[in-house]
Amino acid sequence: MVLRSENLWTFLITVAIICRVSQSLHFELRSGRTKCISEDIKSNSMTVGKYTVVNPNEAHPSPPSHKISIRVTSSYGNTFHHAEDVDSGQFAFTAVEAGDYMACFTANGHKPEVTLSIDFDWRTGIHSKSWGSVAKKSQVEVMEFEVKQLIETVNSIHDEMFYLRDREEEMQNLNRVQTPKWLG
Predict the structure, then answer these.
(1) Could you count the other beta carbons within 10 Å of the beta carbon of residue 49?
(2) For the chain, which has fewer Cβ within 10 Å, the N-terminal or C-terminal residue?
(3) What is the 3-state secondary structure (H, E, C) of 98-167?
(4) What is the pTM of this model?
(5) CA 107, CA 97: separation in Å to the nearest integer?
(6) In the predicted model, what is the mean pLDDT of residues 110-120?
């Protein structure tokens, strides 16, 4: 029983370390251009995002040319966030349908052409929860906090496994339907 317990703790600690990996992006966008980033999100998953146009000269206010438009949509065309002429912002929603969600950034046209640097942090599922603020608010013991975080991570992995199993079954059914009789 001790061996199983040690293996469980090793597994849980490994999962916790892996889940702490940041999912932040930094990319460049030229004036008048659009760049889209896609994320496969399962239904009923919490999603949060934060974006900022990096100011090239932090000593001064951001120039008017450093504005973007952003639209976050589902694969069915539903818009979950839209902002025009902004230099930063954030969004949060619970996905109502499973599929690819797309965040499209458009740099306003400007002459002469400029290249904008954008920081974008998009988190879904277990990664979207701000565990640091939960710990501060409730003043829980450190170990209790870690155990709750690990339980949440394990539950998320469990849900993800069922989701992947369903997707695999859909793909197998699709392959069965599309396989010509002379191959099968």
Answers:
(1) 23
(2) N
(3) CEEEEEEEEECCCCCCCEEEEEEEEEEHHHHCCHHHHHHHHCCCHHHHHHHHHHHHHHHHHHHHHHHHHH
(4) 0.59
(5) 29
(6) 87
- When pLDDT is cut at 50, 70 and 90, the band that residue 58 belongs to is confident
**85 burial type by CB count under 10 A (0-12 exposed, 13-18 middle, 19+ buried):** exposed
Tokens of 120: 């974008």
DSSP 55: P
Q: Order of strands, edge to edge, in the sheet holding 46-53? A: 24-30, 115-124, 46-53, 88-94
9 close to 97: Cβ distance less than 8 angstroms: no
